[in-house]
């Protein structure tokens, strides 16, 4: 099954929230979420529910997965990741049981349950009509598990296609954060962050815009690697001569 667990010890490359390029509105909502979980017991005394279900949606490569792990890091919680696209069984009846098991395990202990490719629950409707009944049962199972989730368990779901998700599921999320392609200015700041640790010759690259942070990182590192290799080649030639 497409599930894995990550802890602070083995997630050395997890970015902190301060390192992510979040817009002000998203950062404020995440800060409020962190405050609520920090003072969870105090809120419980007054029977005030916390926002423990968050949906991250928008363009791929803009930091949804990184945000989920950064939140886990900030809360000092283990992140249990379920990739829904790789999890749904060819026998949908088994998938409902498997999803229930995942939620049950995530409900014990201080964890963050992160469901990636959450839109798969909508895309699968295009499959054979014979599966439509099982699909409805799977959606109902998800709704039930989300509704029964303990307050001290945080659920984060990510999707690139929020428009295909059942509205009954969408209503369960108290927080919805939209991720868009970064502006020219924000990409320049991102490129600057990447390049600041490299010497001038190595850091000389052609910047590409209108792309995601993940794509910009690939663009930058590909050129940086080429620059390093070219420098080493020149050194070798100089040593021979």
Give an overview in words.
With 241 residues, the chain is an alpha/beta fold. It has two domains: 3-179, Rossmann fold; 184-240. The protein contains ten helices and six strands, in the order βααβαβααβααβαβαα. It has helices at 24-38, 40-45, 64-75, 84-87, 92-106, 120-123, 132-147, 167-170, 184-195, 213-240; strands spanning 3-6, 53-58, 78-83, 111-116, 154-159, 175-179. The protein has a six-stranded mixed beta sheet, with helices on both faces. The chain starts with a strand and ends with a helix.
Task: Describe how the helices and strands are arranged.
Blueprint: E1 3-6, H1 24-38, H2 40-45, E2 53-58, H3 64-75, E3 78-83, H4 84-87, H5 92-106, E4 111-116, H6 120-123, H7 132-147, E5 154-159, H8 167-170, E6 175-179, H9 184-195, H10 213-240
Parallel strand pairs: 2-5, 2-6, 3-4, 4-5
Antiparallel strand pairs: 1-3
Helix pairs in contact: 5-7, 9-10
Give the tags.
241 residues, alpha/beta, Rossmann fold, 2 domains, six-stranded mixed β-sheet, 6 strands, 14% strand
What is the number of helices? 10
Write down the overall mean pLDDT.
87
Low-pLDDT residue spans: none
Structural class: alpha/beta
Give the amount of beta strand, in percent. Answer: 5-15%
Q: Count all strands and give the number.
A: 6
Q: Portion of residues in helices? A: 40-55%
Main-sheet strand order equals 1-3-4-5-2-6
Query: How many separate domains make up the residues?
Result: 2
- Radius of gyration using CA atoms only: 21 Å
Query: Based on CA inertia axes, which overall geometry fits?
Result: elongated
Roughly how many Å apart are the termini?
A: 57 Å
The first-level CATH class name of the largest domain: Alpha Beta
- Give the H and E element order: EHHEHEHHEHHEHEHH
CATH fold annotation of the largest domain: Rossmann fold
CATH architecture of the largest domain: 3-Layer(aba) Sandwich
How does the major sheet shape up? 6 strands, mixed
Give the CATH superfamily of the largest domain: P-loop containing nucleotide triphosphate hydrolases
